[in-house]
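Deliverable D5.2: sample structural annotation.
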Amino acid sequence: MSRPFTSNSQGPVQEAEEFLYIMTHDLKAFARAMRTIPDWIGEDLAAQRIVLSADAADNLAMLRDYAHRLDDTLTALTELSRVARLADPPAAHDLEALVTGACTRLPATPRLTCDTECGGLHVKGPLNDLNRLFDAILGNAAAHHDRDFGNLRIVARTWHDRVQVTVSDDGPGIAPAHWTAVFKPLATLRPKSETGHSGVGLAIARKVVRSLGGEIAIIPTEAPRGLSVRFDLPGADGGA
């Protein structure tokens, strides 16, 4: 089992986290400018009644698209750098409320329903990191679902002094050969130009779980479709 990352880590790890945060924060200013400038160019050309050639218009649209993707990637990396390092004070939280909140923040498309079996369990940890965790897991399922509708099933049970959570979806799934690689930052199974996603969601989820002393993994499922992700979090003894 890998050594958990904790907010008390010192030395090179902490320095790397701080550098990542500073770098992504500063680069976002450039990315936002790159997103805005193509629009200014288009407005200036329109004001002068200049019509771009089809190739020039395509190139300008490509620049705008790459700038948006760069900004989205930097935003995701900034979130990754904040995990554990800028965490809220640990507290007990109702697991059902955490899951329900993440379900309400899912995008409208695809239309996913959430079935939960949380058994009245509570977990202990920083609220902002726990929200990042469930947003990342459920959001990843939505981002890669290949149908207009689907279902998420979230089941929790006590496991020693911890709470074990399994999140299952009915999407296309992932080949077992990639089950480890998808937790690495910026890892995607298809080109980012096709998916429009940065590939940081599961890396954020893994970092949150490990910062709380747990592990996360994709587990086998008997269903013909879908993916199941299992992780464990500190229990909170009836919410106390």
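Annotation notes: Helices lie at 12-47, 54-82, 95-104, 127-143, 192-195, 201-211. Residues 12-82 form one domain.
The annotation will be released with the project's public dataset once the embargo ends.
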